[in-house]
Structures are given as structure tokens and as C-alpha cells.
Design a protein that fits this description.
Elements lengths: L2 H12 L1 E7 L11 H8 L3 E7 L12 E3 L7 E3 L1 H11 L6 E5 L8 H10 L2 E6 L7 H7 L2 E3 L10 H12 L8 H5 L19 E2 L2 E2 L9 H20 L3
Length: about 240
Amino acid sequence: MTTNAVRRKNCQQTIFRIDILTLFPQMFSALEQSIIGRARKAGKIEINLVDFRKWSTDKHKRVDDASFSGGAGLVLSAQPIVDCIEEIDPNHESHRIFLTPAAPVLTQKRIKELAVNHKRLTLLCGHYEGVDQRAIDLCFDEVISIGDYVLTGGEIPAMVVVDAVARYVEGVISAESLKNESFSESNLLEHPQYTRPREFRGLHVPEVLVGGNHAEIEKWKKQASLEITKKHRGGK
């Protein structure tokens, strides 16, 4: 194998891959923009949108049916989801996540773990009243919620996971940016930020930030982080 071929192979091995199972792939155009879009073009991250309706064995390509527990809503059937998963990830090389409100709430710590411990994720976007539990039991490693509220589908939660995880993929953003942000190792919220001009509509940049004393600036940052954390998180 030539040197260039080895380099290409190593490059391919380091790409972080995310497969998203969804009925509405057109909703993910946002992932072609900004930092995520640039990371995809640079080959740092690969995002594959998979319409699992294609795996439905129903003659009308239906993917849902009435719930055995009753109620007005429909439930996504296990068959197309399971068949889709078994085809795109036959050897279970991917860490598989179902996005649902009925799950542990996502944290920065968990995001970092997903990015560091895995090189491939599969995300399932639910819809309607939910997903047949057998699909989850048979195929998925984890369930995640992005918060204690209900959305119309799992596409927005999937985009949240992609955006948050991608930031920890090497080369997507700088290590310094990760170090000093909210929910870093200090577990404090990030301090307020300012830029030019020094005065805007009667509001001034704190004097310590323009004084050039780096030790005092760091001291201000820490104190400001403590204060904003106490204000918004009750000091937790």
C-alpha cells in the first residue's frame, strides 16, 4: 500500500459517522450550514439521512398503526425500523440512540462521552405517539431526552445531538473554545462576553476587561461565572 493510500485509509477511519433514521430527511438542511456544514465538507464528520419508510413491507409503505393500549394517536411499527437497522448496521458497530421524552435528560457530560467513546452513532427520530417498544428492545443501546417537554417529532432532538457531539470531534472547533464554555469541567455557566465598542447605548464593557491585567481578567471571569451560575442554577 502506498503512503498516500495509507493516509487516505487513516483519514477515512477517523471520520465520525452519524446515521439518522427519519421519515422527514428534508428537515435536516440546517446541518448543511455553518460549522457543521463546514465540518462535513472537510471530511471531519459524516451524516447520513436514512428514510426508514423504504424498509416497510406494507404494500402502501405504511410505518405506523393503532396502539394496543388505545388512544387517538398512532405508533411507529417495529418492522421497518428493525429491518432498516439490521441492513445499515448489520454488525452493530454503531452506538444506537432513540430520542424520546421518556428518557434521561441529555447533559454536556454525556455528549462528551458519546463523542469520545464512539466513532459512529445511529439516531432514531420518533413520531406520533411513539415507537413500538420491541424495536427499542431489539436494536437500541440507549434512550435520550433533550428536555422535559414534548415535540412533534425527533428530528429537532437529533439535530441537537448532532450539533453538540460534533463540537467534540477533532478539528471541528478549537480545543480552547471547548475548555472555556458553559458546562465545562468546572460545571459553571460561562461568563458574559463583550466586544467593540466599549460603550453602547450607555452600557460599558467592565473596566477590568480592557485594563490589560490578565490575572485580574481571569479572576473576573471566574467570579462572573459563579454569579451567573447562582442566578440561573441556584448555585448548583
